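In response to reviewer comment 3 from the previous cycle, which asked for concrete evidence that the modeling workflow produces usable outputs, we include below a single protein chain processed end to end. The sequence was submitted unchanged, and the resulting structure tokens are shown without manual editing.
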Amino acid sequence: MRGDSELEGWEFINFIALLLYYEVYMLLVSKDLLGKYSPKDVILHMARVQKLRIGINWRLAEIPKKSRILIEKLELNMDGT
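The workflow returned the following structure tokens.
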């Protein structure tokens, strides 16, 4: 880090990432899926979900089967909006 502001920015981003990680963790605990999936698994599966811009509209691309199964188990809303 070159200065205090860079360090503070880095710490802030890590804090936000940690909050999101534990949101995923608590979602897995609430759905009783922690024995099968880890938060890292969820993040990797959700990274495969893509949105495409077609003209002026945004659409979800085809979601891979394993990711779609996980989305259904977690009861996530993936309506494309």
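The beta strands are 51-54, 57-60. We consider this sufficient to address the reviewer's concern, and the full set will be provided in the supplementary archive.
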